[in-house]
Amino acid sequence: MREWPRFARSVGARYVTLTAKHHDGYALWATATSDYGVAAGRDVVGTLAAACSESGVALFLYYSLLDWHEPTYESDFSRYLDFLERQLQELLTRYGPIAGLWFDGAWSRPMEDWHLEQTYAQIHALQPEALVGNNHHVIPLAGEDFQIYEGAFPEEVQYGGSIVPRAGMPAEICAELGPTWFYGNNGYAAERERAASLLAAAAARDLNLLLNVPPAPDGRIDPSYWGALKDLRRV
After folding, report:
1. What is the CATH code for 1-145?
2. In the chain, which residues fall in CATH 3.20.20.80?
3. Shortest CA distance to 181 belongs to which of 213, 153, 219?
4. Inter-residue contact 31 to 85 (CB < 8 Å)
5. For 57-156, where are the alpha helices, taking DSSP H only?
């Protein structure tokens, strides 16, 4: 895993964003909130945080607000929000400086259900320098520091036919380089021409580009990524 920030630096990236918990609810840190996650000796967030610190690469954490595994998400949403707060407390207090939080899944419920102002206040109290972004498909809310576009540029049709305009703040587009966001059973072919095109288009629009790099089952970065992204900073 120490390879990951070194890879990021080699392709000109200034930060990495780790999927700490996706919609399936599995935690990549040793959480005390649930037994659905890695064991203490396999703490992926902790290992990567240390590697990023050594390499001088900033660490963002992706966290899905939506959780298909945690029963209280459906049965008692008020309790689920407490669960969410405790998980974020762990992520924000165990691993040193966190550059930012990248939220997803808020679109699964009415926005007012989330009480995001409380979540953002918690983040800014525990990690004052952390940036907050939310892939919620609406105009940014108070407490958010950057705007997210998923797989499409701001002027393109988004999310059920509506266009989400730029909101006068830093913005980022995240995109995959192959057929899916996930590593396939037969490997994963990253496409250099697509990577170069995305970077050029993002730069022309003054957007950060967050490229998806799914690791192989053993944690290695597929060789096709080294080839596709080598010297990409010169595009």
Report:
1. 3.20.20.80
2. 1-145
3. 213
4. no
5. 72-75, 77-93, 116-126
CB 197 within 8 A of CB 173: no
- Write out the two tokens for 89: 């407390």
**Residue 24: CB partners within 8 Å, gap ≥ 6?**
68, 69
- Kindly report each contact of residues 32-38 with a partner whose C-beta sits within 8 Å and lies 24 or more positions away, as own/partner: 32/86, 32/90, 33/83, 33/86, 33/87, 33/90, 34/69, 34/70, 34/83, 36/69, 36/70
Q: What is the mean pLDDT of residues 27-48?
A: 96
DSSP output for 31-43: -SS-SSB--GGG-
> What's the pLDDT score for residue 182?
84
> pLDDT by residue (tens digit) across 61-83?
999 999 999 999 999 999 999 99
Question: Tokens 């057929």 sit at which residue?
Answer: 179
Q: Which two tokens stand for residue 127?
A: 């990690």
In whole angstroms, what is the distance from residue 173 CA to residue 202 CA?
Answer: 7
Residue 215 identity (one-letter amino acid): P
Backbone angles phi, psi at 184, to 5 degrees: -85, 165
Choose between 155 and 110: higher pLDDT: 110
